[in-house]
Amino acid sequence: MSATLLLTVALAVVIGISLGLLGGGGSILAVPLLVYVADLPAKEAIATSLLVVGATSAVGMLPHARAGRVRWRTGLIFGLAGMTGAYAGGRLAEFVPAGILLTGFAIMMLATAVAMIRGRRSAEGKPAPHELPVLRVILDGVVVGLVTGLVGAGGGFLVVPALALLGGLPMPVAVGTSLVVIAMKSFAGLAGYLSSVSINWGLAAAVTLAAILGSFAGARLAGKIPADVLRKAFGWFVVVMGVFVLAQQLPGDLRSNPLLWAGVGVAAAIAVALALGGRRRSGPREPIASVPAGSSSRR
């Protein structure tokens, strides 16, 4: 086994840990890992990431389902609508240049990072719906699925906000339900990609197995790390990854220009400061849901 493959498999564990702890983040890590460490072409990396994230989410959903944190009707309808959008996105990606896909992916990473650093408004005191309106679920599912299939990203960090912020589901339920949705539309997006892209099934299987093992570790760690600390740290990590992916799309002379990077650093600092300031004025934060410590210890 080569050093590159060992490093890829080892880092794939982090993908699973992210899904186990946060209910998302798998594709945000999987695509850069497969492109820049495993040295896969961009479209093959995106297709492989859909397999990895889909399988890991399907396994990670099981403890949430046992704990009653899955809204099955909402999840299945959202997932079916998302599968339609994801398949269309995967087919559309055939006609979009790889550089544009990766640039869009990086922009989504940065937007996700800001949302994580800011946190979410608390929904305390609001009645929690058992299931969401069907038409809203279908519309949200198609839009989120299209993005997922197109760039191989946006799983939990688009589905969870859609369910929690737009739908009003409690965060633990939104996280559990999102894993059902992510699994369904990730496999649909993969089907769309396989019509035009071939993947290395051996590498994909190794990365998927490592990510699944990581998801078990993430579930056991859940509740032991303060959610607010974990969320912000992961958000800053995603900022670094997003800037790195964007940098790879620049011409070589720009990548080596120190003035450009100084400007990027200042702009990022200002953007995050403004985001945090807006969050402080808007009210308290709701932590990312995690598996209760008691249930983790029983596994």
Radius of gyration: 18 Å
How would you write the strand order of the largest sheet? 1-2
Mean pLDDT, to the nearest integer, reads 77
- Report helical residue fraction: over 70%
> How large is the share of residues in beta strands?
under 5%
Tally of DSSP β-strands: 2
* First-last Cα distance: 32 Å
Key features of this structure:
299 residues; mainly alpha; two-stranded antiparallel sheet; 13 helices; 2 strands; disordered C terminus; Probable membrane transporter protein
Explain how this protein is built.
- Its main location: membrane.
- The chain crosses the membrane at residues 46-63, 95-117, 137-170, 190-217, 229-247, 259-277.
- This is Probable membrane transporter protein.
- Belongs to the 4-toluene sulfonate uptake permease (TSUP) (TC 2.A.102) family.
- InterPro entries: TM_pro_TauE-like (IPR002781), TSUP/Inactive_protease-like (IPR051598).
- The protein is mostly helical and 299 residues long.
- It has one domain (3-297).
- It has helices at 3-22, 26-37, 42-66, 72-92, 98-118, 134-151, 156-166, 171-194, 201-221, 227-248, 252-255, 258-282, 293-297; strands at 120-121, 285-286.
- Strands 1-2 form a two-stranded antiparallel sheet.
- The two termini are 32 Å apart.
- Mean pLDDT is 77; it is low at 285-299.
Topology (SSEs and partners):
Blueprint: H1 3-22, H2 26-37, H3 42-66, H4 72-92, H5 98-118, E1 120-121, H6 134-151, H7 156-166, H8 171-194, H9 201-221, H10 227-248, H11 252-255, H12 258-282, E2 285-286, H13 293-297
Antiparallel strand pairs: 1-2
